[in-house]
Amino acid sequence: MRRRFVAGIDSSTQQTKLVLVDAATGELIRSSALPHPDGTELDPEHWWSALHGVGGTRPTGASAVSIAAQQHTTIFLDEEGASLRDALLWNDPRAADCADRLRSELGDDTWLDGPGLLPDATHPVSKLRWLAEHEPDHAARVRTVLLAHDWLTWRLLHRAAAPTTDRSDASATGYWSPRTEAYLPALVRHALGHDIESPAVRPADEAVGTSRHGLLVGAGCGDNAATHLALDTRPGDVVVSIGTSTAVSMRTESPARHLSGRVDTMADTRHGFIPIIAMRNGARVLAATARMLGVTLERLDLLAASADPAAGGALLVPFLDGERAPRIGPASGALLGLSRNSMTPAGIARASILGLGCAIADALDTLAGLFGEPARILLVGGGARSAALRQVVTDLTGRATEGPEHREHAAFGAARQAAWALTGAAPDWPPLGTIRHDPSPQRVWADEVRARYRLASGAR
Questions:
Q1: For the chain, which domains are there?
Q2: Residues 145, 196: contact at Cβ < 8 Å?
Q3: Active-site option among 166, 169, 205, 223
């Protein structure tokens, strides 16, 4: 039988990645990547240029392609389909006050019972309010609002038909209900001042068109849902993705309703839900600490592993880029509990990893409190390459974790979706090999460190 290949693309915050895989087995054939400019406000043409540069517009040998991308990043289009201004990325903080006003004007129940989240600066609905208040001329001209994967998929189809999305990215907008599977136009009107045209929500197994080069194009999805798809998660599985940001999400059969707003109810690209706690800070915390100490990430890991498990009382509050979960207003990082004994490279390295690990452990506990103990905890992303961080998360939670073999999971999830659209059946790819991490018998320090973190982070 002739082998068929599919391409998966992940347009993340930092780069565009493409993988070409065997549609029947999931075997990686080749991959490529190109970086994106840094910033929280960018011309979306940068992402299109990177997609073209990795071969995504015509991936050699591929019969189908699907695109995953950074969630919440918002692109404003006029009636001609042209971008009105630079896109606002998910981590752009300017709409924070607007989000607070949306909450106070409509009440938290409206948001929790509708889109299943409380708006913050990240969500597109808050960005619509910001545009209405600060750039009213642009706001008046907005006809369509797309997220990154919607826009890239539409561009790949040469804008020949109306834009499409999937349920995972629709649920990231703040004006689509994962419970009723419908848009909430009243929320758009309240935020922006007028109606918009929203992309049609298409199922995960559906092709949304064919490119000019005869390439079948799948519906695509948000990056978090793509990672769950790549890992073939089941209800009860938790994915801890430590990349530019940290996202802790559980596959569930019911939505979340968390009064603090810490948990957003996202829809899974297949069916069901992936309630998620999304934090702004992730692997960049480790990179910043390594830069401060003048060492490589590999050396940072060794230093942290060699230190006193509790870092001699030192702890980094890891809000180096502010924070959105927990919602504690203006947030910044802090290095606390220093002494002559802890103020060493090893102590600082350990304090950094403990801070990030505590944030992850608190998120895991929140999801477990809502939905019960996780079936599996899967650690993925660039930050999960840190052996010290993997063990810290395991010890702080007292729960076994698993490390799937490292790969570009969001891109593989998109490839899996492309194979689904191509063949008409969910791919039965072999499961990834994983490494199990068990809590250390000597984790007596863990409870004290977590209590110290809660006190320090709650006070800031």
A1: 5-222 (3.30.420.40)
A2: yes
A3: 223
